[in-house]
Specification:
By secondary structure, the protein is an all-alpha fold. Helix content is about 70%, strand content about 0%. The protein has ten helices and no strands. It is flat and about 65 Å long.
């Protein structure tokens, strides 16, 4: 599994042939441990999250702990290209680390005061926010020479419109290159969690 994860990190994806070459075995030998490539990919997703510690190791309110869990989740996904996409487009992976993250997240959402019946919708929203954000960042980095180069290009494009006709757009352009993926993520996460906290308080 370590070899598969390392290979996926280098390529953003991998084939059974490439994995067999890396391990020095026939590619078909891999199927002795996994029924098919999908099973191996599910195991890879779970392995990518093995360093997450979703238990009560972080002090603070349920919302503060949920925030840290989302930050840790994002960091784990960002370290392993392709995993965020896999999580977004396939059925849930039932490995112990994914299930642990799910259980801890739902527990914290409920502890924040959200009704048990509504907690899955909040959980789904947060997971989509994290995974879609990471996947988008991966695509941007894959097609541009780094985040700053992309920001400069976007800023230049928006700055080219008429400030008299589109004052808000040109004002936005002036701010885009002062931010970062991390800053934008935390800003959006805090907006979502503020809404979750208010929802919990009103329940």
């Amino acid at each position: 599994m370590v070899a598969a994860l390392e290979l996926a990190d280098m390529r953003g994806d991998f084939s059974m042939r490439a994995l067999g070459e890396r391990l020095g075995v026939d590619p078909m030998a891999v199927y002795r441990h996994f029924r098919d490539k999908d099973a191996l990919l599910d195991a890879l997703v779970d392995a990518a999250l093995q360093d997450l510690e979703p238990g009560p190791h972080v002090a603070g309110t349920p919302i503060e702990r949920l925030r840290q869990l989302c930050l840790d989740f994002r960091r784990a996904l960002s370290a392993h290209p392709g995993v965020a996409h896999r999580l977004r487009v396939t059925l849930p992976t039932l490995g112990p680390h994914v299930i642990g993250l799910t259980e801890a997240s739902l527990g914290l959402i409920h502890q924040a005061g959200v009704e048990l019946a509504e907690a899955p919708r909040v959980f789904t929203l947060l997971i989509r926010f994290v995974t879609a954000g990471v996947e988008e960042e991966e695509q941007i980095l894959a097609h541009n020479d780094g985040e700053q180069a992309w920001r400069a290009a976007v800023t230049s494009r928006y700055s080219s419109v008429s400030s008299g006709e589109y004052p808000h757009v040109t004002a936005m352009a002036a701010e885009l290159d002062r931010s970062s993926f991390q800053d934008d993520f935390e800003y959006g996460l805090d907006l979502l969690l503020d809404a979750v906290a208010r929802r919990g308080a009103s329940a």
